[in-house]
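During the reporting period the student researcher (J.K.) took over the structure-prediction task from the postdoctoral fellow and processed the backlog of single-chain submissions. One of the processed entries is reproduced below for the supervisory committee.
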Amino acid sequence: MDGEILSAMSALSTRIANLTSEQRRVLEQRLRSAVAAVMRPLLTGNDTSVSYPEHRCLHEMVERQVGRSPDAVAVVFERERITYRELNNRANQLAHFLRASGVGPEVVVGICLERSIEMVVGLLGILKAGGAYLPIDPSYPLERISFMARDGGIRLLLTEGELADRFNLNGEMQGLYVFPMDASWEQVAAFPTTNLPNRVSPDNLAYVIYTSGSTGRPKGSMLHHRGICNRLVWMQHAYQLGATDAVLQKTSFSFDVSVWEFFWPLMTGARLVMALPGGHRDGAYLVEVIRRERITVLHFVPSMLQAWLPERGVEECRSLRLVVCSGEALGAGLRRRVEERMGWVELENLYGPTEASVDVTRWSCRLGGEVEEVPIGRPIWNTQMYVLGREQELVPVGVAGELYIGGVQLARGYAGRPDLTAERFLPHPYSRQAGERMYRTGDVGRYLASGEVEYLGRADEQVKIRGYRIELGEIEAVLREHGGVRQCVVSVREERSGQQQLVGYVVAADAAGAGGAGAALTGELREHLRRSLPEYMAPSAFVLLERM
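J.K. obtained the following structure tokens:
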């Protein structure tokens, strides 16, 4: 085969050598045109520079809206409603209290609450105090919460009621000041309701969100105000939220989509409607709250949207004007079903990792036309998307490569993980600005001739289940800690319904195999995982093998 290639190259060289000067000139022009056509999307698609209010911080954008519509309803939770003025006053009191407790720039404050108005007050209050918030889902096991508290460097945790008792009874949480907002609010109410002088810059931390880690421990992405403000100002420009809009907040606040669900409506004068805890899993409840509160905007992970579409009453949710999908690949079949069932809705496909301030590309499904796969689109303001080969070289249009992200939205890195930060946040070879970085996503994609990027899958063992990022290696690492496990592998199985499930394959240390001993081991493994991992990371089934 090598001989044939060399022979063909020799023949081609001979033919080129025999060309006239005019023939060579024509050939060079054609080659330049061909190369330009192939590379044009790569060179022009990342020209995304747009001016935005980069000197502002997230809480300042909310404060400006308070000044514009102080008496408008800001947050709704069931029958409870508070205005922008009331929200601002309560958040200010909390912020004064937090500052008096030592919270300021680069101080990370944990917050562990069920979905409620107090959750919004807590998030905004932390930002106003100058701190960064670290959201902790109350359903997480104490072992995971303890790790996040230590790893994230938090010394103060806002929580409530029984959750406060749960933390105080856990010895691993010693040294952490647990503040129950409901039981001790009188301490906060003694502080002023005035806005605090801003002590943070756009480059200071705004929030830290933990995702699954391949080493067996979660990793915390550190995001600054500059990146998330660019993301939100772009979103407002793209979709124009206003006073008549209502956004349903139904995503767990440990998932980065919640950041725009909280703060986009609050910086634009819309209503933020908080779903009941667990309400995101109840299709009938979602239909009811959409109709009752006249919801106009909401987010769905594609697999959850697919499960919700057949729900009775969906066709009556006429207040909806915008449905945003992200967190998983949006299939062309699901897109068609949305058009058939909810043809009046604008469906948007967004893409982005937690490490890049939620989303970095957008494709609007209203562009129409039949596509085999729904692309993730083009980069948004002040961000860049590259498809690179093994040596970080640009690959031509249509050729698969790994996706890299550049621009203002990149995280500072991972909390307490300089090694992992250096591995994933690399020097930017295509930037003219010194010190610029790009993030290696681990996703595989390609540029289409139209200039859009198409997502093709993963280059590693990370998977998405109902929008949650899961490193299979983290589950396997925890399983191997159990004395009854000699070998294990966790993989994803797709059911006939299209839903994906985690399955654990285990070789027992004592070759217990099947039968009663095997059933007992399976039960022990479920309990072992429950103490360390969130529910969404637990395999739905175990298969015991004699050998791997």
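The committee noted the following: The chain has a mean pLDDT of 90.
J.K. will present the remaining backlog at the next meeting.
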